[in-house]
Amino acid sequence: MTPVIIDTDPGIDDAIALLYALRQPDLHVLALTTVAGNIGLPVTTDNAARLAALAGRTVPVHPGAAAPLARAAEPEVAIHGSDGLGGVFLPEARLGASRHGAVTALSDLLMQTPPKTIELHCLAPLTNIAQLLQHTPDVAGRIKRLIVMGGAVATRGNFGPGQRAEFNLGQDPDAAAIVLHAGLDLTLIPLDATRQLRADAAYVAALRAAATPRATTCADLIDAYFGANEDRESRPLHDPCVPLLALHPDLFRVETRLLQVEPGTGALIDGPHPIQVAMGLDAAALRARLLAGLAIAGSPEAGTSTAC
Q: Where is each Inosine/uridine-preferring nucleoside hydrolase domain found (predicted)?
């Protein structure tokens, strides 16, 4: 199993990613760290703990940054709702939030394990990871790999002036620059790839037919994610791409791009930093892998879900 720490801001697509990743036999999720992104930090932290309970996992949840490094947060309530989950009910958390903050937990876990052991799966603005690199730079060399959902390379963004940036990088461009320019082993999954992974009504029906609490909850979440799409195709399933790439790299087209983060906006522009970027994916095969992972049943599973 690959030891993993997931940095997250649940968030509808974060929730689907967590419910998938937390039950995969080849991923050992050591901890969840939370950040304000899609919604405020108390809500993202509570959502992460509730998602762990639904997945039947007792995983510590460490709250992190409540705001970007140098600007005010801009939560995405219009898409995710005031609860971050589009009104989908989750069971009570088994554990409350840890007393140890995200940066402390990241540093401790990385220092307590052999170098190049732990992967960081980043589903959110990169504030926590940037603070880790700023406060304890000696741990950077111990990270095995970062897989980051973020950015827009050759496609339109979804955040900021002119929609040039992507939400995660644009929410905290200073943090994005610190992490992406650090020379770490990092694979970026931008909108160029994630926009190819969507669900339709037939996929939601297949999730409901799987009949596990996690699959049923994900069906509810995707229903909430359809929004006003008249063709009944969901918004992109951005964040599930991160654990899917970790487990099924052959289903992604990854290439090296020379990039940098544009100051102030978080947009990706041509630059000196070689970064591994997933520019494409096999959407049909990945949807099948996601469904299969969410259909894993058996103890421990807990809770049910109901769209409110």
A: 4-286
Whether 306 is covered by a domain: the verdict is no
* pLDDT tens digits, 271-308: 999 999 999 999 999 999 999 999 987 544 333 333 32
Q: What is the pLDDT of residues 41-96, one digit of tens each?
A: 999 999 999 999 999 999 999 999 999 999 887 766 655 456 768 789 898 888 88
Give the dihedral sign, CA 126/130/133/135. Answer: negative
CATH number, domain with residue 62: 3.90.245.10
pLDDT for 234-285, tens place per residue? 778 999 999 999 999 999 999 999 999 999 999 999 999 999 999 999 999 9
Determine whether 284 is exposed, middle or buried from the number of CB atoms within 10 Å of its CB (0-12, 13-18, 19+). Answer: exposed
Total domains in the fold of the chain = 1
Q: Which domain holds residue 190?
A: 2-294
Element (H, E) at 3: strand 2-8
Task: Kindly list the catalytic residues.
Answer: 238
Whether the Cβ atoms of residue 157 and residue 166 lie closer than 8 Å to each other: yes
Kindly report the backbone phi and psi dihedral angles of residue 260, in degrees, each rounded to the nearest multiple of 5, phi listed first.
Answer: -155, 165
